[in-house]
Amino acid sequence: MATKTDSRLSAVDKYFKITERGSNYSREIRGGFATFFAMSYIVVLNPLILGGADSSGAFLGPARVAAMTALVAGVLTIAMGAWGKHPFALATGLGVNAFVAVTVASHPGLTWPDMMGLVVLSGITMFILVLTGFRTAVFNAVPAGLKTAIVVGIGMFIALIGLVNAGFVRRIPDVAGTTVPVGLGFDGKLVGWPTLVFIVGLILTIALVIRKVKGAILIGIIAATVLANVLEMTLHIGPSFDGKNANPLGWSLVVPNFSGLTPPDLSLFGQFNLFGSFAQLGGLAAALLAFSILLSIFFDAMGTMVGLASEAGTMDKDGNIPNVNRVLLVDAFGAIAGGGTSVSSNQIFVESGAGIGEGARTGLASVVTGLLLIVAMFFTPLISLVPFEAVAPALVVVGFMMVSQVGKIDWSDWGIAIPAFLTFILMPFTYSIANGLGAGFIAFVLIRAVQGRAKEVHPLMWVVAGAFLVFFGIGTLEGLFGIK
Questions:
Q1: How many structural domains comprise the chain?
Q2: pLDDT per residue over 277-305, tens digit each?
Q3: Domain span at residue 153?
Q4: Looking at the domain assignment, is residue 9 inside a domain?
Q5: For the chain, N or C: smaller number of CB within 10 Å?
């Protein structure tokens, strides 16, 4: 009997290449849990972002969005793990869903099905680009120095996400005319029990990582979660914003609480109008919106994939990623599935870095994360028990690990150094991976041309730089053509 069990385990090991990648079952399972805890907030947050009414007065509904967000993310993450064989989880992309929500709110006549149809069209286009090999070719055309800069930029971005959503760093309202965009805590002071949870979690996680304790990141998340729930039960802290009133002492994204079994409502499946936006907005305006979505999901995923694969050690010496076409196909299908279920484009989540930091190196971790997301459709306590302040320390620590690769950049070559610098500072400063990539790519081709080394630039880099020039100039183009 033991022999049969060992044989089955050996088959799983061989399929996912667990031993080959220097991992083991416990690391993969811990990594899967760590990624789930780090990203589970999206199931609560996405319904809030997509919570507005469209031009017809229709709402998607928080319960329906939450259920579909968890289901789609779970299925795609399992597909990434079982077929793509990488520890990358997928869920609704925060940049794209915010863009979708703002577009629906600011364009009279546009409905949710119309906008989700644009997301589906962008996903289909990206799927075709992967099948034709174009997306992989673009990935291979990026110089090694810029790939390293992408890793550093995503590390800084992950750390900033953790710091901001934990309340340690906050946006400063411009009421007083200040030119400082962010500051320490609230009014220059660290306040509130949630921030204390983050600080305690960060200190504990750093200490455990330094001591090389197995499960350091997951232990830090669990310990901070326990502290958060004790504080909420005894002090009734509440949310930082309840829909009407702001409370700087409250929890940022998720108030820790224990709720019961909720049957999922999956009625949003298929609620999209593929070409409705073209009829409502006109061909040029709709095409520009689709182009914005396409470029964002195209390069957000590429940048995230590079950063996570580098941190996981799955890239080879030439910067290639195993099964890269499978990874990109699952990611492309994420846009189609997300738009087709009205939860917006799904893409590789940077929070997967929490699982990688815990030791995950294979797709088995993603299978674990995906199964937990599907279970979360029914058991909301798995999500609502964990506030973002409890997982933010993991993101800061993983961010440090990724930024440590900055030494690999050749700072003596300004043709790489300046684009790399722009890449990794603009990712966190603009809260967008795509913006950082765009600035870096444009700077790279321009500087190489000025240096008289244009022949060293891959032709696809010129194409991509041109596409980003259009992307950054969309506001000007809309004004030029009178598009509102």
A1: 1
A2: 998 888 888 888 888 898 888 888 888 99
A3: 15-480
A4: no
A5: N
